[in-house]
Amino acid sequence: MAFATAKDGTQIYFKDWGSGPPVVFSHGWPLIADAWDPQLKLMADNGFRVVAHDRRGGGRSGQPWQGNDLDTYAEDLASVIEALDLRDVILVGHSTGGGEVTRYVGRHGASRVTKAVLLGAIPPLMLKTEANPEGLPIDVFDEIRKGVLTDRSQFYKDLSAPFYGANREGSTVSQGTRDEFWLWSMTVGIKGAHDCIKAFSETDLTEDLKKFDIPTLIIHGDDDQIVPIVASANKSSKLVQDVTFKVYPGAPHGLSMVPEFADRFNADLLAFARG
């Protein structure tokens, strides 16, 4: 297996497939790099080099006590990019991974990046505040923390329903996909999973978005029950300079793995990368 060494010595696992222009994927919480496998194969089959890492705290990466915050996640992403000396990268981030990508650009600029894709992403801020009344109240995130600490196995099984829209009439998501979500989530250590809730809910990425000076594709489902579009993509799309904003009617948070939406996302991703 391949690893990059983070600044604090944590080993960050990554997969590196194919050859061609590099596309680097950052996954959502509480998942691992394997959640991107369909897109990794698609892009590698179409002439791209694809890289996806397991965020610290889960999967095959190290599980340190410290560093479960977006600043460190962004530096871990930088460690992978620099270890492979990738240039002209297309960054793709889903959910918390979209926050990771955003903070990376905010801290490192676009010297190694040529485009970005934010899918169901958390920026600019998920938490409800006086300045962000469209956000979710802190009680929502306290309940997530409680679920992780009390019975994370059952919590993840239950969470897979709104994540993929399985609780909506006519949903086409399979039980296998929901089982896969549980399997990946259970590889994430409880410390990293718990700390990441604060990271994805309370980190304000507004100023990072304002630093984007690269073509950016923002995709969000208007039935996202995890990261509601009103406090995320609707706002992010107004902060990024060169943006293409696509709303998928009826799509859930994990739309890239739901049959009725995955084909559209894959086509949009490939077209944007080629454009």
Automatic annotation (TrEMBL):
<dbReference type="InterPro" id="IPR000073">
    <property type="entry name" value="AB_hydrolase_1"/>
</dbReference>
<keyword id="KW-0378">Hydrolase</keyword>
<dbReference type="InterPro" id="IPR050471">
    <property type="entry name" value="AB_hydrolase"/>
</dbReference>
<dbReference type="GO" id="GO:0016787">
    <property type="term" value="F:hydrolase activity"/>
</dbReference>
<protein>
    <submittedName>
        <fullName>Alpha/beta hydrolase</fullName>
    </submittedName>
</protein>
<dbReference type="InterPro" id="IPR029058">
    <property type="entry name" value="AB_hydrolase_fold"/>
</dbReference>
<dbReference type="Pfam" id="PF00561">
    <property type="entry name" value="Abhydrolase_1"/>
</dbReference>
<feature type="domain" description="AB hydrolase-1">
    <location>
        <begin position="21"/>
        <end position="256"/>
    </location>
</feature>
